Amino acid sequence: DVRAYLSRMAAVPIQAKRGCPFDCVYCTYHMAEGRTYRLHSPRRVAEAVARLASQDLRDIEFVDNVFNSPYEHAIEICRALADARPRARLQSMELNPRFVDDALLDAMEAAGFVGIGITVESAADAPLKGLGKDYTAADVHRTADVVRRHRLPCFWLFMLGGPGETKETVRETLR
Predict the structure, then answer these.
(1) 147 three-state secondary structure
(2) pTM over 0.90
(3) Distance between CA 135 and CA 125 in Å, rounded?
(4) Distance, CA of 136 to CA of 148 (rounded, Å)
(5) What is the DSSP secondary-structure string of 52-90?
(6) Hey, how many other C-beta atoms are within 10 angstroms of the C-beta on 2?
(7) Pick from 89, 136, 126: nearest CA to 81
(8) Dist. CA 20–CA 9, nearest whole Å
């Protein structure tokens, strides 16, 4: 219902894949979608975005559980979007810091992304381990350095109080 989206100025969700191989302790994606990736064709994803944009649905959010995993698929999606040049404002709130680098953010900027979100949960190793994350606090800091070199606004998502969290790990994350 295009009019409903337009009247509410809502971002249209789109998925470029299904499945999640990660073991985050709080997440149910792998139960709902399975652990094996089922990747949509980058060309077909770009065509879908262009079709939505042609109907004036220009705010589009990639809602994949982790947009940038697998990394090469995310790069291919961005290349297909850059080639298609849909008149859309793209965003994704689900980037894993383990797979963020300059090449990815360059590709996202070229594709038309106007904002990103990085779900880091913590910037301290004990809570990251307790949450079943596949990255470390050093990866979070490296990702912050990469983000600083780019013009994409970034929303950081943190979760306080998880397994292994202490007052000191909260302070470490806030620092």
Answers:
(1) helix
(2) yes
(3) 9
(4) 19
(5) HHHTT--EEEE--SSTTSSHHHHHHHHHHHHHH--S-EE
(6) 11
(7) 89
(8) 30
> 138-143, long-range: CB within 8 Å, 24+ apart, which pairs?
139/97, 139/98, 140/97, 142/97, 143/97, 143/100, 143/118
User: Which strands form 113-121's sheet, in the order they lie side by side?
Assistant: 12-14, 59-62, 89-95, 113-121, 154-158
Among 108, 111, 158, smallest CA distance to 133 is for 158
Q: Convert the pLDDT of each residue in 22-81 to its tens digit.
A: 999 998 888 889 999 999 999 999 999 999 999 988 899 999 999 999 999 999 999 999
**Spatial distance between the Cα atoms of 123 and 127, rounded to a whole number of angstroms:** 8
C-alpha to C-alpha distance for 22 and 29, rounded to whole angstroms:
9
| C-beta separation of 57 from 11 below 8 A | no
